[in-house]
Backbone:
C-alpha cells in the first residue's frame, strides 16, 4: 500500500511551466555576457542551483563564449558571481510564481482522505522556499513535510538525501510504499536513487518547456509528439510511471494499491 507521496515544487506542484528559475538563469548569464538557449537552461533543472550554474558553465558552447569574452575558462569565483546575480533576479519575481498547478489541491485532498502523507523536495534553498511555501500556503497548498538541500548538509539532487529525510519524517522505512513525483530528469533520478517509485508528470513541466495552457493549445499532432518525447525522456532516466497531469495521480495510487 502507498503510504507517502513526495512532490517536487516548481513545475510539479506550483509555477506551471517552471518559469521562475528559467528567467532568473537567463538574466544572470546575460549579465555575464553569456547567451543561453531555454533548452540548455532547462536540461539540468532540479539540481541545487549552484550546481545548475556550474553544469551550464561546463557546456562546451558556454565555455567557448566565456573564453572568447574573458580569455580564460570559467572559475569557481565566476560561478559564485553568477549565482549571486541569479538569486537577485529570482527573489525579484519569485513570489509571483507560487500558485498551485491545476489539479493539485484536489489531488492533495484525495491523498489526505486516504491517509497518505505528503512530503516534498526541491532544488531551491531554504530561503527561496520560504517565499514559495508561503505563497502556496496562502493559495491552499501545504505539504506535511518540506526538505531543502540546506536541511541535508547542502546535498542536492540527484542524490537521495532529501527523500531519505522525508521518509524519516514520515516514519516510513519501505521505499516501495512511497511515490516521488517530479518534472525533471534530476527528480526521476532522485527517486530511483532513493529506492522509491519514481513518477514524471508531463503537463506544465520543465521537461515539456511549456505551460499547461500552451501545451493544450498546441495542434493535436504536435501536442502528442511532445507528450511522447517527454514521457520517453522520463523513462530513459528510469521513471517507473509517467502521468499526464497531477489529477491522474490518484488513479495511479489506486491501481498500485489494488495490485499490492
Residues:
Amino acid at each position: 500500500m502507498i503510504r507517502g507521496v513526495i512532490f517536487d515544487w516548481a513545475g510539479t506542484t506550483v509555477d506551471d511551466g517552471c518559469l521562475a528559475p528559467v528567467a532568473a538563469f537567463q538574466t544572470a548569464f546575460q549579465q555575464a555576457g553569456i547567451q543561453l538557449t531555454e533548452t540548455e537552461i532547462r536540461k539540468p533543472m532540479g539540481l541545487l542551483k549552484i550546481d545548475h550554474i556550474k553544469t551550464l558553465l561546463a557546456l562546451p558552447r558556454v565555455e567557448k563564449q566565456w573564453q572568447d569574452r574573458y580569455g580564460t575558462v570559467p572559475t569557481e569565483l565566476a560561478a559564485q558571481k553568477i549565482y549571486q546575480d541569479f538569486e537577485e533576479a529570482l527573489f525579484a519575481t519569485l513570489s509571483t510564481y507560487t500558485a498551485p498547478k491545476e489539479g493539485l489541491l484536489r489531488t492533495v485532498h484525495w491523498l489526505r482522505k486516504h491517509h497518505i502523507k505528503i512530503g516534498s523536495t526541491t532544488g531551491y534553498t531554504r530561503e527561496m522556499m520560504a517565499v514559495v511555501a508561503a505563497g502556496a500556503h496562502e493559495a491552499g497548498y501545504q505539504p506535511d513535510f518540506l526538505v531543502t538541500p540546506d536541511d541535508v548538509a547542502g546535498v542536492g539532487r540527484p542524490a537521495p538525501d532529501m527523500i531519505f529525510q522525508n521518509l524519516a519524517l514520515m516514519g516510513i522505512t519501505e521505499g516501495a510504499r512511497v511515490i516521488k513525483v517530479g518534472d525533471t530528469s534530476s527528480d526521476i533520478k532522485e527517486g530511483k536513487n532513493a529506492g522509491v517509485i519514481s513518477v514524471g508528470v508531463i503537463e506544465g513541466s520543465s521537461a515539456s518547456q511549456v505551460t499547461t495552457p500552451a501545451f493544450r493549445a498546441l495542434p493535436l499532432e504536435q501536442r502528442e509528439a511532445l507528450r511522447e518525447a517527454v514521457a520517453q525522456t522520463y523513462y530513459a532516466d528510469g521513471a517507473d510511471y509517467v502521468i499526464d497531469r497531477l489529477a491522474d495521480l490518484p488513479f495511479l495510487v489506486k491501481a498500485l494499491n489494488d495490485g499490492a
